[in-house]
């Protein structure tokens, strides 16, 4: 086997999409069937995520050689768009998992990740816990890794927005390692003694993502599970954002489908309308048609940004540092541009679709507002105004977009 063939075998270059998607679509249909009830009653999707785990959904990016499907990034995000159409909460709950998988794919270049690949193929999922709780000054990390008297590494801290961790087997935990004096990722067991997760997320949208508070109290972590943060895959911010774009695209398609069915079934008309049935009213059809086009555009842009991510992924293995850096710049820029446009498209269509119906569309039993609420919540991640500014700074001054950033209390807050 040539060196090129050996490298190719280690990578996730793509599969027959329809074959892979056909495997999961029946599960997506089951998930969609209960989505409205979960929204109405705020039921966390433990059972639905278990269906995906058992089917190997968490391993779709793992190379075929190691038992996964070997999907490319555009294929992954196409599949996530299909899942988001069924239930956008579940895609966000799995966001941290797929980011951790991506990081292990990148790390595999220099150090075998076969153990992690085997875990993913076996169904293990990874949750997310990065954001510090409370009045933490920006730049500070209170979650700490220390060393006890017998040389074991111990981690303690508290996080919020721990999306997906309540459903997971492992937790991707951002911390400061006092031993090595650096920021790290500590991959800890979700089931370890000292790990407590609260379902206290109170957002008006994306209610069932499991994005609550996690407390870590003196949890032992193997040294092999402590990963330097500066070695994290470089296109991570873009990757996280494109998952949101796939989620928004799925929300858009679900909204168009649901409102179309409402129009199809509607019996009441207005005396000053344009047809004997609402489904034949040209103005109503115009509303649906425009929303459909906007949903299509959203998915198309998502796929374009995913192609940029795939180039960034492949560039890591090409032994050309300058080209890899440029590929990461491109991925960050395209994901930001996609975010700005897709957020506007989906927020617009999930509001304007109400023009196809009437006051009955506001019924809480229908929960038709869930599409806008969920889209608004997803779009509130990574503030749009700062992304627009960063894009403008690139266009005018060629200033690189920030690959990593933090949120926290301002040092001036106490004196203000």
From TrEMBL:
<dbReference type="InterPro" id="IPR037069">
    <property type="entry name" value="AcylCoA_DH/ox_N_sf"/>
</dbReference>
<feature type="domain" description="Acyl-CoA dehydrogenase/oxidase N-terminal">
    <location>
        <begin position="29"/>
        <end position="114"/>
    </location>
</feature>
<keyword id="KW-0560">Oxidoreductase</keyword>
<dbReference type="GO" id="GO:0050660">
    <property type="term" value="F:flavin adenine dinucleotide binding"/>
</dbReference>
<dbReference type="InterPro" id="IPR013786">
    <property type="entry name" value="AcylCoA_DH/ox_N"/>
</dbReference>
<dbReference type="GO" id="GO:0033539">
    <property type="term" value="P:fatty acid beta-oxidation using acyl-CoA dehydrogenase"/>
</dbReference>
<comment type="similarity">
    <text>Belongs to the HpaH/HsaA monooxygenase family.</text>
</comment>
<dbReference type="Pfam" id="PF08028">
    <property type="entry name" value="Acyl-CoA_dh_2"/>
</dbReference>
<dbReference type="InterPro" id="IPR036250">
    <property type="entry name" value="AcylCo_DH-like_C"/>
</dbReference>
<feature type="domain" description="Acyl-CoA dehydrogenase C-terminal">
    <location>
        <begin position="246"/>
        <end position="382"/>
    </location>
</feature>
<dbReference type="GO" id="GO:0005737">
    <property type="term" value="C:cytoplasm"/>
</dbReference>
<dbReference type="InterPro" id="IPR013107">
    <property type="entry name" value="Acyl-CoA_DH_C"/>
</dbReference>
<dbReference type="InterPro" id="IPR009100">
    <property type="entry name" value="AcylCoA_DH/oxidase_NM_dom_sf"/>
</dbReference>
<dbReference type="InterPro" id="IPR046373">
    <property type="entry name" value="Acyl-CoA_Oxase/DH_mid-dom_sf"/>
</dbReference>
<dbReference type="GO" id="GO:0003995">
    <property type="term" value="F:acyl-CoA dehydrogenase activity"/>
</dbReference>
<dbReference type="InterPro" id="IPR050741">
    <property type="entry name" value="Acyl-CoA_dehydrogenase"/>
</dbReference>
<dbReference type="GO" id="GO:0016712">
    <property type="term" value="F:oxidoreductase activity, acting on paired donors, with incorporation or reduction of molecular oxygen, reduced flavin or flavoprotein as one donor, and incorporation of one atom of oxygen"/>
</dbReference>
<protein>
    <submittedName>
        <fullName>Putative acyl-CoA dehydrogenase</fullName>
    </submittedName>
</protein>
<dbReference type="Pfam" id="PF02771">
    <property type="entry name" value="Acyl-CoA_dh_N"/>
</dbReference>
């Amino acid at each position: 086997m040539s060196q090129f063939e050996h490298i190719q075998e280690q990578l996730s270059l793509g599969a027959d999409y329809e074959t892979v998607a056909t495997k999961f679509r029946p599960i997506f249909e089951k998930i969609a069937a209960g989505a409205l009830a979960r929204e109405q009653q705020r039921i966390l999707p433990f059972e639905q995520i278990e269906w995906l785990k058992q089917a190997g959904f968490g391993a779709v990016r793992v190379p075929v050689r190691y038992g996964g499907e070997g999907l490319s990034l555009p294929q992954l995000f196409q599949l996530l768009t299909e899942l988001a159409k069924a239930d956008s909460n579940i895609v966000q709950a799995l966001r941290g998992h797929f980011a951790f998988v991506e990081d292990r794919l990148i790390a595999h270049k220099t150090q075998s990740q076969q153990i992690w690949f085997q875990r993913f193929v076996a169904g293990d999922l990874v949750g997310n816990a990065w954001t510090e709780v409370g009045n933490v000054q920006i730049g500070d990390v209170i979650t700490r890794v220390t060393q006890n008297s017998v040389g074991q590494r111990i981690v303690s801290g508290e996080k919020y927005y721990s999306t997906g961790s309540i459903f997971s087997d492992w937790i991707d935990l951002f911390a400061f390692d006092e031993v090595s004096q650096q920021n790290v990722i500590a991959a800890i067991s979700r089931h370890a003694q000292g790990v407590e997760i609260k379902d206290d997320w109170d957002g008006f949208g994306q209610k069932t993502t499991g994005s609550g508070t996690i407390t870590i109290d003196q949890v032992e972590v193997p040294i092999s599970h402590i990963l330097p943060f500066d070695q994290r895959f470089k296109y991570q911010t873009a990757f996280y954002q494109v998952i949101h774009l796939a989620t928004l695209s799925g929300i858009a398609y679900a909204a168009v489908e649901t409102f179309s069915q409402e129009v199809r079934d509607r019996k009441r008309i207005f005396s000053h309308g344009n047809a004997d049935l609402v489904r034949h009213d040209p103005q109503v059809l115009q509303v649906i048609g425009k929303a459909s086009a906007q949903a299509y555009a959203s998915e198309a842009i998502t796929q374009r940004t995913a192609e940029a991510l795939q180039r960034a992924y492949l560039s890591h293995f090409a032994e050309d540092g300058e080209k890899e850096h440029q590929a990461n710049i491109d991925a960050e820029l395209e994901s930001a541009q996609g975010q700005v446009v897709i957020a506007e498209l989906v927020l617009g269509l999930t509001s304007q679709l109400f023009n196809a119906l009437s006051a009955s569309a506001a019924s809480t039993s229908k929960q038709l507002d869930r599409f806008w609420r969920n889209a608004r919540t997803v779009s509130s991640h990574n503030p749009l105004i700062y992304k627009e500014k960063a894009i403008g700074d690139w266009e005018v001054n060629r200033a690189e977009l920030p690959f990593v950033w933090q949120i926290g209390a301002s040092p001036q807050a106490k004196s203000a």
